[in-house]
Amino acid sequence: MKKVLFIILIHWIYSVSIISQCLDLGIEFTTQAEIDNFKTNYPGCTQITGPIIITGDEITNLNGLNEITHMGQINIQNTSSLRTLQGLKSVKEALIIALYNNSALQSLEGLDSLTSVEFLLVIQENDSLVNLSGLNSLKESFALYITANLALENLNGLDELIHIQNLAIDANPLLTNLVGMPKLDTLASLQISNNDGLLNLTGLENINTMQNTVSIFRNPSLNSLTAFSNLYYLGKKLEIFENPSLTSFNGLNSLVQIGGEFIIKNNPLLQNFQGLNSLQYIGSNTDISHNVALQNLNGLESVHVMKDNIYITDNDALTSLSGLDNIDPLYINHITLNHNPTLTFCAIESVCSFLANEENSQFIIDNDTGCNTADQVRNSCTVPVQILNETSIQLFPNPTSGKLEIIGDDLNKNIINVTDSQGRTIKDFFYQESSIDLSNLPNGIYFISFIFENTRIVKRVVKGI
């Protein structure tokens, strides 16, 4: 008798499971009546395995779906009267959720039980959505895309989110930071782009490694990367371009390795690479171009491996390659130095060693004198150095409070290079006046190099009186 009862129980559980799983080919709702009559038309259906589409101006609520607990894919799109998602209160898991172009949607309340989205959660072009309240139970999603939500002010509502593989936040004009994900500690790739009001990336402080790519571009108000203060490893590419308010890399001070490409383009206020002082390894191409205020590459002194190709092009204010001095030339396949109109000092050790083999691939042209051709760079690499005791040039007063008078013959059109005590280039320029102003520099020891055709004279200067 017990065996019979056991068999009946197993059969009942199996039958209930089969009944609850339904609509493996999916269903589309285009009217409110179709949603209201769902439980009548599909009794016992709580797990829809096929795709669900909800669309149309007539849809005002989803209350008829309030017994559904699991979904495969659900697209809620192109509605104009739907304000909340209250009818989805029983949904705990889904493969894909896409919320697209729902102009009246003000809240995600109704998804309060949702804990996991296996593949993709898209929140896009919902013009009335102010925050993400309603996703408060969500712990993980493989990918989360938050795109073009014109009223979105913050990410509040993602309180329990811990794991995301791919996060993209694009074209949300009122978003000023990324606060709202206090438990997020796992992130593989990140795209932050086209967010007009975004000032900083606060909210990402728990991230210390990322296995894939970081792309930060076209955020016109972004002025700080300090939220990355704990990031020390990036598995693939780092690209930062077209961020017109970004002044420095401060915040990336812990970053040691970039496994892929390093692309820094069209950031008009960047003057150097200070903030990347811990970086040691770049695993693929380096492209530094169209940064109109970039003066030198200081901040990259710790980089020893810069693999494959190096492209340094169209940086209007760049005068020196100082900062790349310690790169091992054995890892370089090719160097392009092109159209940097003030670039005069390229004779750093890594470049000199690479160009010493004339078979190595290079394209060096349309820079200033000293760096305009590969031969010019090679010639500068062989210039002997006279340090400190040369009397043909005098600097007065030394020590100085700031302004130095230059006394010497035949200095016209010679290059003057100013470095600090750690060898970092502060400034490169042609001699035009009989003085150098160090007033805006901190007190300390500086070296002033006068570069002639066949020699370089270096003077030690103390600033601090």
Account of the 3D structure:
The protein is mostly beta strands and 465 residues long. It folds into two domains: 13-381, Leucine-rich repeat, LRR (right-handed beta-alpha superhelix) (Alpha-Beta Horseshoe); 385-463, Sandwich (Immunoglobulin-like). Helices cover 9% and strands 33% of the residues. The protein is built from five helices and 30 strands. It has a 17-stranded parallel sheet that branches. The protein has a five-stranded parallel sheet with strand order 11-13-15-17-19, with no helix packed on it. A five-stranded mixed sheet has the order 23-30-29-26-27, with no helix packed on it. The longest helix is centred in the N-terminal third of the chain and has 19 residues, at 2-20. It is elongated, with a radius of gyration of 31 Å. The model is unreliable at 1-19 and 385-389 (pLDDT under 50).
